[in-house]
Design a protein that fits this description.
alpha+beta; Membrane-bound Lytic Murein Transglycosylase D, Chain A; Glucose Permease (Domain IIA); 10-stranded antiparallel sheet; two-stranded antiparallel ribbon; 5 helices; 12 strands; elongated
Length: 292
């Protein structure tokens, strides 16, 4: 009986070993016949996120942002590139234009801010064909780029300017003296872009010719309370350092009309600083004013 039990136990042990060996062999055979998959690292993975946004260089560039278009405009007559210290009033004065027209021609939304390097149209579109004949004087005055005390945004919607004579009929007879005092300082294009006329506080300042007020305010550094009149497509006159301004922008004035009272705003003494600009370029007023 003991022999039978022992034999039975031995048989079970042998069968268990044979079963285990068969499983191991089967696994080994399967492993040899079906190798484990190998990852191909050269094959790009399928993206699991949405397509990324276009980079800045891939986005469509508007005409105003296109550097090629800007560079092309900057070299054309009738365009001007903003420099440090520029203001719209200064640019208008130096190009013989109403600063409000420059706002309108360039669709400027905020007239209180212009950027260095910004290219501005300084001639009306209809004048581009003959822009080669326009004298453009660059602005070199230092300072920050701001229009100072110019009116806030929204003024660019002002109505188009009224008509003015296209040409002065006779330059030597066109202008009259804007004040009765003697000349203190003569014209020097590099140091004094006009003449300084002596006087007393409150003395009348007169329009030198028929025209229209294109600026009245204190937004141009060094000029104090300033009036700029446009007389034709060629001529502007400027009246600086006034105590009181008696006219407003867009107002028409007549030759000899009182437009201000003499003062010392932004100046160490009472005087009238008077300039004549032809196509934006300062000219000696003494050559255009009558003898007295």
């Amino acid at each position: 009986m003991k022999f039978a039990i022992a034999s039975s136990s031995r048989v079970k042990l042998i069968l268990s070993c044979l079963f285990t060996a068969a499983i191991v062999s089967a696994c080994a055979t399967t492993g040899r016949g079906m190798p484990a998959p190998v990852e191909d690292r050269n094959k790009p993975k399928t993206p699991t996120v949405s397509k990324p946004a276009k980079t800045e260089s891939q986005r469509p560039v508007s005409k105003a942002q296109n550097p090629v278009a800007v560079a092309d405009s900057a070299t054309k007559p009738g365009y001007y590139t903003v420099k440090p210290g520029d203001t719209l009033i200064r640019i208008g004065l130096d190009h013989g234009q109403n600063w409000r027209d420059i706002i309108r021609w360039n669709s400027i939304e905020n007239p209180n801010l212009i950027e260095v390097g910004q290219v501005l149209r300084v001639l009306p579109p209809s004048a581009e064909a003959v822009a080669e004949s326009v004298v453009v004087k660059p602005v070199t005055s230092p300072g920050t780029v701001t229009t100072g005390q110019e009116p806030a945004a929204g003024t660019s919607s002002a109505k188009p300017p009224s008509s003015v004579p296209a040409e002065a009929p006779d330059e030597t007879q066109f202008f009259s003296w804007p004040a009765a005092g003697s000349v203190q300082s003569s014209f020097d294009e590099s140091k004094n872009k006009g003449i300084d006329i002596a006087g007393k506080l409150g003395d009348p300042v007169l329009a030198s010719a028929d025209g229209r007020v294109v600026y009245a305010g204190a937004g141009l550094r060094g000029y104090g309370n300033l009036i700029i009149l446009k007389h034709s497509n060629n001529f502007l006159t400027a009246y600086a350092h006034n105590q009181t301004l008696l006219v407003r922008e867009e107002q028409s004035v007549k030759k000899g009309q009182k437009i201000a009272e003499m003062g010392s705003s932004d100046s160490e003494q009472i005087k009238l600083h008077f300039e004549i600009r032809k196509q934006g370029k300062p000219v000696d007023p003494m050559k255009l004013l009558p003898n007295r």
